[in-house]
Amino acid sequence: MTNDWMIDVLTDLRKFATKQAMPDLAEHLDDAILIAATELRAIEAGQNILGPDEYQSRDLSGAIADNGIP
């Protein structure tokens, strides 16, 4: 994985949140680590269908917004 630094930063933040008695933040950072690892793996496998300047917006529930596209 060429972007291990990103996982390392999130892991450091999670450790800090745990030490500061911030369990909710630590749990969200666990999720972020998993998501980052999954997306980085997909990008490295050539499965990234979006360009580097594109993104999929999500609503508050986390669902991908359709942005008016049928």
Structure description:
With 70 residues, the protein is mainly alpha-helical. It has a domain of 36 residues. The protein is 54% helix and 0% strand. The protein is built from two helices and no strands. α1 runs antiparallel to α2. The longest helix has 22 residues. The termini are far apart. The mean pLDDT is 80.
Key terms for this structure?
70 residues; mainly alpha; 2 helices
Largest sheet: none
Whole-angstrom Rg: 15 Å
What is the first-to-last residue Cα distance? 36 Å
Beta-strand fraction estimate = under 5%
Strand element count: 0
Give the integer mean of the pLDDT values. Answer: 80
Number of helices: 2
Structural class: mainly alpha
What's the helical proportion of residues?
Answer: 40-55%
Helix-strand pattern, N to C?
HH
Q: What general outline do the C-alpha atoms trace?
A: elongated
What is the subunit organization of this protein? single chain
Stretches where pLDDT is under 50 for at least 5 consecutive residues are none
Itemize the secondary structure elements and their pairings.
Blueprint: H1 4-19, H2 23-44
Task: Give a short synopsis of this structure.
The protein has 70 residues and is mainly alpha-helical. The protein has a domain at 9-44. The protein is built from two helices and no strands.
